[in-house]
């Protein structure tokens, strides 16, 4: 299969609602060494998800566009609605305009100023030695994270352990990767596809576990 045929298959799977890692796994199982790389699958899945319809590469030359047309504003708006976690530079790359123009469209034309409000980050981790080492604590201080205190002997209170990683293991179950880069890319896809509800459920579960921890005076919490 050539590149255009690969893209046609990716487009078909995107329309079926498959994630990039699922598309890559399907194509790898059928095409083996002739399958496109995971990076290629991820790139074109994102293109088709954001409204790209052609199987051809976008022809872009010269400096990025600076004019703000209704078509460009609609495209920027649709991209943001699909994924509010995208960076301005990523939106600019997808649309083919400058970062400054994207920022102008979002803040002035679409009134999405809240997208750029910096929020305070509360960081929570358990008391494992790598997490409490001087190097780790210095990095947390550098990022200006507010560290949530963790009771001793309660590793089960970390949302990553009881909520995030179990779902990640389920997401990767049955997948085979030929390199570390493919595995890293798959993990990135998992985190990129998480919705607001996924994080909210983890925080809700943390509140429940904290209450149980208080009731048992800091003893181990199973559920």
UniProtKB/TrEMBL annotation:
Domain of life, per lineage: Eukaryota
Keyword tags: Methyltransferase, Transferase
Signal peptide (UniProt feature, chain positions): none
Gene3D superfamilies to which the protein is assigned, alphabetical: 1.10.10.1450, Ribonuclease H-like superfamily/Ribonuclease H
Keyword check for Transmembrane: no
Residue ranges constituting the Mos1 transposase HTH domain according to the UniProt record: 7-51
InterPro entries from the UniProt entry: Mos1_HTH, RNaseH_sf, Transposase-MT_Hybrid
A single BP term in Gene Ontology: methylation
Gene Ontology MF terms: methyltransferase activity; nucleic acid binding
Transmembrane segments: none
PANTHER family tied to this protein: MARINER MOS1 TRANSPOSASE-LIKE PROTEIN
Name listed for the protein in its UniProt record: Histone-lysine N-methyltransferase SETMAR
